[in-house]
Amino acid sequence: MDVKAKVNELLQPYLNEDQYFVVDIQVSPSRIRAKITVLLDSDTGITIEECARISRKLGNQLEELEIFDGQPFTLEVSSPGVDEPLVLRRQYLKNVGREIEVLLNDGQTRKGKLESVGEEAIIITEKPLKKPKKNDPPIEPTEIPFAEIKKSTIQISFK
Description:
Elements: H1 3-11, E1 20-28, E2 34-42, H2 48-64, E3 73-78, H3 89-94, E4 99-104, E5 109-117, E6 121-126, E7 142-145, E8 149-154
Parallel strand pairs: 2-3
Antiparallel strand pairs: 1-2, 4-5, 4-8, 5-6, 6-7
Family: Belongs to the RimP family.
InterPro entries: Ribosome_maturation_RimP, RimP_C, RimP_N, RimP_N_sf
Keywords: Cytoplasm, Ribosome biogenesis
């Protein structure tokens, strides 16, 4: 079993019966000091205290198992930052109502409000490029299949 799979397996008991979910696990081996980065989230967010608690428990287990044959390693457990792309459907669900930028596989970019999330696609209402005139038709929501999404990020506004 590779390190990433082992870390994922060891994390499962700490996810509070699916309250938290694994967004990503990255393992960067090194002859000096390997690094394991774990990104966790939940439908309501995850606190620094919870990340620290999980990190301590997971770190102890990894040390006991000598995951890198006794070599030193760094373990970082955190939540994804606001600039991290959305990866899982569950992340999209928690961000319904927020502004999103979607890069499609064909290179096109779509920006708008994330209206809803289905099993196979998301629906956004794009912002008009220019101020709509009185006789302009209303903007229809756009469905974007997950299969066509290369990368999605939440847009933060400080207005």
